[in-house]
Amino acid sequence: MAAAIMAARQGAQVTILEHMDRVGKKLLSTGNGRCNLTNLSMESGCYHCSQPGFPMKAIRCFDVGHTLGFLEELGIMVKSKNGYIYPNSEQASAVLDLFRLELLRLQIQSITGCQVKQLHSKKGQRFFAVTDQGGFSGDALILAAGSKAAPATGSDGSGYRLAERFGHKVITPLPALVQLCCEGRHFKQLAGVRCEAEISLFCAGKRLSSALGEVQLTEYGVSGIPTFQVSRFASTSLEKKKPVEIALDFLPAKSQEETEQFLKKRALQMPHLEIEDFLTGVLHKKLAAVLVKLSHIPARQAAADVPQDAWERLARQIKSFQAAVSATKSFEHAQVCCGGVDTRDILPETMESKLVPGLYLAGELLDVDGICGGYNLQWAWTSGCLAGIHAGSPNRLPHRK
Ligand SMILES: Cc1cc2nc3c(=O)[nH]c(=O)nc-3n(C[C@H](O)[C@H](O)[C@H](O)COP(=O)(O)OP(=O)(O)OC[C@H]3O[C@@H](n4cnc5c(N)ncnc54)[C@H](O)[C@@H]3O)c2cc1C
User: What is the helix (H) or strand (E) element at residue 135, kind and residue range?
Assistant: First the structure.
């Protein structure tokens, strides 16, 4: 939609081919229905790509300032929550409404229920789409068919096949921003616990990523934003059949030594407390019970009778609760994909294909994935608007009749 709007604003006649019954369906589920549009803090570390400099090169051409201007032109009043940008109404549906109204104003034709089955071009000068509603042709083509994440919203991965037909390479798409399934019988007991923690993800003993925030413990493993942030590294490592582990730190503000000291001091202050009640008010009750059990301290032992070396064991469990990751949840549960069309064959300033002039690729279809916090929509706005501006520019298309 962003690409179509920008192309039409350059004077191009634009048609959107969309196989769902309406355009922009995925937007409705973003930010839990509130749509985290972008983020004022934009750094290279917020994006992952096999060609690391690529996302920021493009974002510098159409940055957050351009995006806020673009959203304002559409009539979207925004607000910042610590730099996280939302529509003032906190309704994703309002964002979609304003996009659709702009499509109408610019007389952009949206053909819905229209599955694009094949795409081809004649010497990059004329593009043809074969769909279940007949053929379409145009001077330029923007492929923005999304990834394989959340296929119920329309992104079924067919865009990868369409890009491959033009000679583009696709780096295996894998679920990202997704829950992790873990081994260990304790998760059943921990289901429902939400707590502030730091999650670290290890592959073959090497720490690949960490994130801090509200972790959710579930029957199958872990969820919540910090889990999503590290999940792409689990996906890529598991794909290579490498062992993946997580470690949860339930008192991230304290070091291992400080935690041990804290426990010993608490035992002196409250020697009468049985160990099963000892962490009440410090950690969630269910979590405390599991950590105490893993430290091999009898539940009914009074704090005063706990041997000194047991405090070290308990501190270690609190600071580094470990579990092997057996899998990620599937594409159905993922917010985005890592992998996608290889960006080495795309010009970051315009999103034009280096292989087929006149072909543009944008959005999550590309091998770019952002962390949680508005970064994936920012990528959609940046790449979509750049593609639209350049595909729709009369100067770029001298052969237009
Ligand atoms: C639950 C959830 C919450 C999210 N929350 C946020 C958030 O708050 N902030 C954020 O930045 N990001 C968020 N994201 C990610 C963000 O929504 C996506 O990165 C973004 O929508 C990608 O835009 P896109 O246009 O590339 O792809 P999509 O939005 O997937 O659009 C692709 C379109 O192409 C259509 N299509 C695909 N194949 C064909 C075909 N063969 N023929 C015709 N049409 C086709 C699809 O139906 C779809 O409408 C969230 C994602 C999910 C799933």
Answer: strand 134-138
